[in-house]
Design goal:
Chain lengths: ~210, ~425
């Protein structure tokens, strides 16, 4: 179990473990025998391993839900829902600013410099970024583009959506926590029966 | 049929071919303009040149009123040469080739039976060319498919277009596989009979090549389906996010249900609170406590901050002062001992006896050490005024280690 010490520590600290955030640990977590051992270890801590729909990211869940656990989950859900709009708007901004086909996905590399050059050329993007950066979730007080970007990336890193491989180099890698966020959006849509369609017309005809 | 006629025909074909191929080079720019636009620009083309291009079927005129366009084969040739995936055609046309092969084998047989070796050779050459063409068409088609696949359909920018291109590629694969299925080796075996050259060309050689194409096509197909799934997932994610953003904008006060209060808390919502390193992990169970201890040992040390160093310095200061003060007190007490010796009129005094007699509370060893070092610290001239004798014993008969038990200090008799 000792060899999984650092992994347990990260899990206990509330980290999400995916192929980007810790490749070795993630590989270990794909092994059912190791998962069982970790679960056995976590039992007295009233915790267990949990994963998202595609099993692309692991985190810890409560084993038994008592009153205080439910309270904590309610608070946490409230926070996540509160961060939903800025996070989703950021995802859209990334897609548009970088002219990508899809949303940022785990493993994608993002550089603040790319954003700043795009935003400098494009007033619309610049304004959207400014609005987004001043959202309480990102909480930038600055009116300088670079400082705003820095704050946005910093917050995303703190929340575990981005990983910065080298502290002194300005590039970030999207982590599997994005998958979790998307799964959560889908879950809320399904639970609340929101009129949001993610299937294409051709797909529907195929089905 | 005389044998000279076919030779003459051949040389006429060659010279006409060279002449017409040269037309492609001569009018390359105009033709490329026709490739990129709808019609071939006629400025800069003389009437003679235009007529030659039309005669060579490099250009054609779809109707009398309309403009001049590139012939489909030329367009295909250019697309093929440029690996231009937007326009490259995938067309193996197996059925027609098979028909032709049957005819050629028939003619070949007749020529062989009639003993016309030259004609037999010609038929075999044409057969070989047809088989090569068939192979070439499959190889080209597979190459084109791989290129599109490996570039993630990079020649179209929108995801929707990529999905449509992928669908088109998958249909092409199905047609190619259908084409491969048309080739019936039992029929070919029967067709070639016992002729070794034909058997090698149409059975063993072809079979090997077609097996290779079949494997490649299946592999491309598998990869295309995988890529399609990724495209679909990307598309579905983008739509989901766009949809949710749109919904939240329209309903700024929307709050989802509190899933944490359900009897069955959904998997995704159940995220345990983090355990902070300083948190008390109260575990009565020995084994668990050991594991927790292991875990705690592995916790990273908090990174020290610059302020912390300053704080430590401030805490250090009184400690240093206290040590210095004690050091000073010891020194003063030792000086007191020296003064007593001076007052004692040349009589030797034991440092330890003095220590015990004076009620000072210094450790004996430290006291002796200070007495000795005070003596050694004196200037030469003053040192001579004292005589320091160490009361010592040899620690062991086997070495020269001496242990000092006491020191005797007395004023040296005046010289």
């Amino acid at each position: 179990m000792i060899e999984h010490g650092p992994l347990l520590e990260r899990l206990l600290a509330g980290d999400f473990i995916c192929a980007v955030s810790d490749e070795t640990a993630f590989r270990h977590l794909q092994d059912e025998a190791i998962r069982e051992r970790i679960d056995a270890y976590l039992r007295p801590l009233n915790r267990r391993l949990a994963t998202n729909t595609d099993a692309s990211v692991y985190f810890l869940a409560w084993l038994r839900l008592d009153e205080s656990a439910r309270e904590q989950l309610s608070r946490q859900l409230g926070d996540t829902v509160g961060s939903l709009m800025p996070m989703l708007e950021w995802l859209q901004l990334v897609q548009e600013a970088l002219g990508r086909d899809g949303l940022a996905a785990p493993g994608d590399v993002l550089k603040p410099a790319d954003f700043s050059s795009r935003c400098e050329d494009h007033q619309g993007l610049r304004e959207r970024l400014e609005r987004l950066a001043s959202d309480p979730f990102f909480g930038s007080q600055s009116d300088q583009l670079d400082a705003q970007l820095k704050q946005v990336f910093k917050r995303l890193k703190e929340h575990g959506y981005l990983q910065q491989p080298h502290a002194e180099r300005q590039y970030y890698v999207v982590t599997g926590k994005i998958d979790y966020l998307i799964d959560l959006v889908r879950f809320i849509r399904d639970e609340e029966n929101l009129p949001i369609d993610d299937q294409t017309a051709t797909q529907q005809t195929l089905l | 049929m005389s044998t000279s006629d076919p030779h003459a025909l051949e040389s006429r074909l060659v010279s006409a071919g060279v002449e017409r191929l040269a037309l492609l080079g001569k009018h390359a720019e105009t033709l490329m303009a026709g490739y990129t636009c709808d019609e071939v620009p006629l400025e800069g083309l003389s009437t003679t040149a235009l007529n030659r291009l039309l005669a060579a079927r490099i250009l054609w005129r779809p109707d009398e009123q309309g403009g001049v366009k590139l012939a489909p084969k030329v367009r295909e040739l250019i697309a093929e040469m440029l690996a231009d995936e937007t326009r490259r055609h995938v067309n193996a046309d197996v059925a027609e080739t098979l028909e032709l092969v049957r005819t050629l084998v028939q003619s070949y047989r007749e020529a062989r039976d009639a003993g016309e070796y030259w004609r037999q050779e010609q038929q075999l050459l044409r057969l070989r060319q047809e088989v090569d063409d068939l192979n070439g068409r499959f190889a080209d088609a597979i190459d084109s498919l791989w290129r599109r696949l490996n570039s993630d359909f990079g020649f179209v920018s929108r995801l929707g277009d990529k999905i449509r291109e992928n669908e088109r590629a998958q249909k092409q694969i199905v047609r190619l596989l259908d084409g491969l299925a048309l080739i019936d080796f039992d029929e070919l075996i029967e067709l070639v009979g016992s002729d070794g050259a034909l058997r090698k060309l149409l059975v063993s050689g072809l079979q090997q090549q077609l097996t290779h194409h079949f494997t490649s096509l299946r592999e491309v197909q598998r990869r295309l389906i995988e890529l399609m799934a990724r495209f679909r997932q990307q598309q579905s994610r983008s739509r989901l996010v766009a949809g949710m953003v749109g919904f939240l904008r329209e309903h700024p006060n929307f709050v989802p249900g509190n899933y944490a209060l359900r009897s069955e808390v959904p998997e995704l919502i159940n995220r345990a609170a983090p355990i902070m390193p300083a948190g008390a992990v109260a575990l009565d169970h020995d084994a668990d406590a050991r594991l927790a201890a292991e875990l705690l040992h592995r916790l990273p040390r908090p990174a020290s901050r610059p302020e912390a160093v300053t704080a430590a310095g401030a805490a250090q200061l009184p400690e240093d002062t206290r040590v210095a003060a004690r050091q000073q007190a010891l020194k003063e007490d030792v000086e007191g001992f020296y003064l007593t010796v001076v007052d004692h009129d040349g009589e030797g005094l034991s440092a330890l006896e003095y220590l015990q007699g004076s009620g000072l509370e210094w450790d004996e060893e430290i006291w002796l050490f200070q007495v000795i070092s005070e003596y050694q610290g004196l200037p030469r001239s003053e040192q001579r005024a004292f005589r320091l004798r160490q009361v010592e014993t040899q620690a062991s008969p086997f070495n020269h280690l001496y242990l000092i038990h006491d020191v005797q200090l007395q004023l040296a008799p005046p010289a």
